[in-house]
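Lab notes, practical 5.
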Amino acid sequence: MVSGGKLLVQCLEAEGTDRVFCVPGESYLDILDALYDSQIEVIVARQEGGAAMMAEADGKATGRPGICMVTRGPGAANAMSGIHVAQQDSTPVIMIVGQVARSYRGRDAFQEVDFVATFGSMAKLVVEINDASRIPEIVARAFRVATSGRPGPVILSCPEDMLGDPTDVSPARRVLPVDPAPDAASMASFNALISRAARPVMIVGGSRWNHAATERLADWAMHRQIPVAVSFRRQHLIPGSHDCYAGDLGIGANPELIQLIKDSDLVILLGGRLSEVPSQNYTLLDIPLPAQRLIHIHPDMNEAGRVYQPALAIIASPAAFVACLDEYPDQEVPSGLLRARTERLQQAHESYYRWSDPRVQAAAPGGRAGVDLRDMMYHLNGALPDRAIVTNGAGNYSAWVHRFYRYRGFLTQFAPTSGSMGYGLPAAVAAALRFPDRPVVCFAGDGCLQMTINELGTVAQHQGRIIVIVIDNGMYGTIRMHQERRFPERVSGTSLHNPDFVALARAYGIRASLVEATEQFPNALKQALNGEGPALIHIKSDAEAITPVSTITQLRQPPEHP
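Output from the prediction step:
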C-alpha cells in the first residue's frame, strides 16, 4: 500500500518525468514527501507564474508535458499566466494543484477554488481526482490529452486528504501521443497542387516538431524552390541562413514578405495557425475563402477550416507529415515553373537578408543616447555560438531580437506567441537545466524582467549558463508606443522607476555589468560568455529608439567584431 501522493509520483516516473517545477504548498505535502525518495529533480521557483512558465518551456524543449506543481487558491491563480502561454503556444503542460479536503468542498473553504470553472476555457482538460485508486487512469489520460492533437495544458486537482489515502494500484504504462500521418490520397492531392503552382510559399509554425523534421523540410523546400516563412516566434524551425528562408510573420513583418504571400498562388500552412499576429491582424489571406489555394496541415482536425477554408486539409503532425514526404513520389514540375520559382526564391531570401541586416537599419528618431541596439544585434550575430539558446518575453525590445538575430536551428528560440511579459527569465531557467552544455541568452525589457525578476533567485541557486540582457529605457515601451500614437504628449501610466539591476543581480550572487555606450557591449558580452555561472548585462537605451523602423536605408559602416 502507498499513499495517493506516492502513487502520483510513481505515475510521473512511469511517464519518464525527470523534473518538476513548483512553489511548495501545504495542500500537496504528500507529493513533496514522495518526491524526496524519487529520481525526479525538484526545481523550486519563487512564484507560481514563474514555475508554470518554466514547465511550459520544458514542454517546448522535450515535447513531453512540462510538470508544474502549485498549491490551491492563490498558487493556482498566480500560475494562470504560464497556463495561458501553454494554451496559446500549443505546448504540453500538466499542472498538479493541491485542493482543499473533499469534505470541505463547496463551503468556500480556505483558498478553495473551482478549478473546472476557473481553467475550463483555457486548459484542454481539468479533472479533480477524488479517489486515489484512479490516479494511474487519470494521469495517463492527462499525458495523452496534453500531447495529442494540438498540445496544450491539463489541470489535475488533488484534494489534500485524497493524497494521503492508501491504495494498492500500480502506475499505468507510458503514454505515447497519437501521431496522425497523412494518407496516400491526401499526399497525391498535395503533390498535384505543388506541381502546378508557379508561386508557392510555405508558412511553418506550431508545435510537435523535431530536429530531423526541420532539417528534412528545409531540404525538401530547397529541392522544389519554395520559399519558407515562419509563424510568429517560430524562427527556430528553419535557420535564417538557409537559402529557402524568407523571414518571419511577426509584429512589424517585412512588407516584401507580406506581399510575397499575397501574390502567391499556393500557400502551404504546416503545423501552425494563422491567428492574429502571423495573419497581420487577419489581413494576410481573405476570410473564409483565401484568394490563393491553401493547404493546411495540422495535427488537430478542429483547426483545419476554423478560420480559413483550405483547398486541401491534411490531419497530421508536422513531424509525421515531413517523414512521409519521401514515401510518395513527386509529380514533375514543368521547367518553366521551376525557373520562375528559383528567381522568386532568391528574391525572397535576399529580401530577408536586407530586412534583417542591422547595418542598413535607419536609427529611430532621436535615438542617440545610450546603446545603439542596431550595433548590439549585429555583434550578437557574430559572437554567439550556433547552439546558443535565445529566450525573451514581450515588449518592443523583442522586435530588435526577432528582426535582427538570425536563429541557427531547432530549439534555439524560446519565446511566447501569447505575448506574455516576464517569460524570458523562467524560460531561460528551464532551457539551461535541459541543455546544460549550451549558453542561454535571455533578453528582457526593464518592464518585462520585473514581472518575474524574483526568478533570479532560481537562476542563482542552479547556476545555469544564463546571460540576462536587460534593455532599459525606463518605460513600458510597447504601451507607450501605442499611447504616443493615439494620445500624443499625454503620457500616463507607462513610466518606470527602475532599480539598479546590476546591484540587484550582485545581491543574488550573479555577475553583472552596466553598459551605457555601444562600444562597451562587446567586452561585457565576452566576459559574460567566458565567466562561470550566470551573468546579467544592464543595457541603457534611448527611450526614443523604441522599435526598429519599418524601412531600410543606405548601408552604414558596420561595427567590427572583436
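Observations recorded by the TA: The first helix runs from residue 4 to 14. The radius of gyration is 24 Å.
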